[in-house]
């Protein structure tokens, strides 16, 4: 009978040592600031859908988007948008919408021909954003043929004609998307085709020309999952996670990103970046625990809107570990002004197809600096800005190379503290929820705690996708 190799116990010992070191390196869970088991709290209200909605009774309500305007809560779901007057609702009673709209798909037959399941061939309303103070933009998947409509905010009556939803709304309800209006234009990010192979950051419906990100270019976007979008200063920011291209040696790992575009961007010239962004930049969001070996929470799951933190605007995000890693979650905060400064860091470039991404020296960066907004900073002083593009930076001297280089930034904005604000070493959190009324006054809280009064709703484990998707 053959003997076992003598080196097997040594390998087993090394494996055990490696596992014990990995577990010890994982950050300890901080003590929670507030725990509530809901006993003795006010009874919760509920909403179970319309009485005559047989589809909701069979498949559930399938909420897609929530929007609060003053004291009105708008809820986008499958085939419906519900409006609730929050002042008129009584605690412990069933929620009753004071009005609602019904918008069913007219393309169910074609959806079935494409091989989709019955529960996919509905109109899942994935975009619900205020166009102005009187008008609401809603976009639905419409059985994998997305369309958009405008509605009166108070009446929920349709206004005007239907619009194409392509590049504004995903084809599939399970695909990610974000949208926000800024200075009269819609800035959206989603998949722009049926196969979900064309991820796009897109501007439309406004006084400025439509612009988009480069098509099928992994240096711009690589299988992104969009999480949040917001307007800040001269830019619109997009927060997402995507498969990394600068660390391909690690395999298919996801990194968290923030990208931005100038609101004044008018696109490139016919010779370079025609009808494409000339100001698109992105950098990595770093949520990690420092130490001898930095422990990263790489995967952005959710993000709050701006929250006042020590007199500065900050964003709180929920991050998790990679799906094939030790399950863990963390909450990191990022100051908006630090994110802005991150975009002033060094660029990265890849000089060969399989080469490493390395910093670009400042003497090789074109002037005006790629990503600059025209009329601001160096772009305002440069004599090379063409008169035909008064609201945009000029096309770079080497457009194809600079466009690829300027996409990546070498620096990453750091959380305002050296460690995540909260963590969990088992399971994965999925969403933060600001609840300022749940905690004491922010000035009374010590720095290691949630100084903005942020309360974390633990929604773990992550909900599974509907069957068949």
Automatic annotation (TrEMBL):
Stored SMART domains: Sema
NAD in keyword set: no
Region spans: Disordered: 384-446
Compositional bias annotation for Low complexity: 399-412, 419-428
Domain Sema: 30-469
Biased amino acid composition, Polar residues: 433-445
Keyword terms of this UniProt record: Glycoprotein, Signal
PROSITE patterns referenced in this protein's UniProt entry, alphabetically: SEMA
GO biological process, one term: positive regulation of cell migration
InterPro entries in the record: Semap_dom, Semap_dom_sf, Semaphorin, WD40/YVTN_repeat-like_dom_sf
Cellular component, GO annotation: plasma membrane
GO molecular function per UniProt: chemorepellent activity; semaphorin receptor binding
Signal peptide residue numbers: 1-24
The protein's name: Semaphorin 6C
